Amino acid sequence: MQSKPEILKLFGSRLKKIREEKGLTQMDVAFHLSTGTGYISRLENGRTEPGITMLYVLAEVLECNPKDLL
Length: 70
Prior knowledge:
The chain is mainly α. 70% of the residues lie in helices and 0% in strands.
């Protein structure tokens, strides 16, 4: 089983990949979430763990399935 830091890094890399594939900046995503780019950066770098609600909101903003981020 992967450790929590490994899981968060994997999540972050998937988030960044999908965001970039959609042509979105961190600022674009942050705007839709009513948050700052620092939060998006921390997610993408595996330094912040998103809650289940945030996972679904991110998937909605990125127009993907939540499982694509996991």
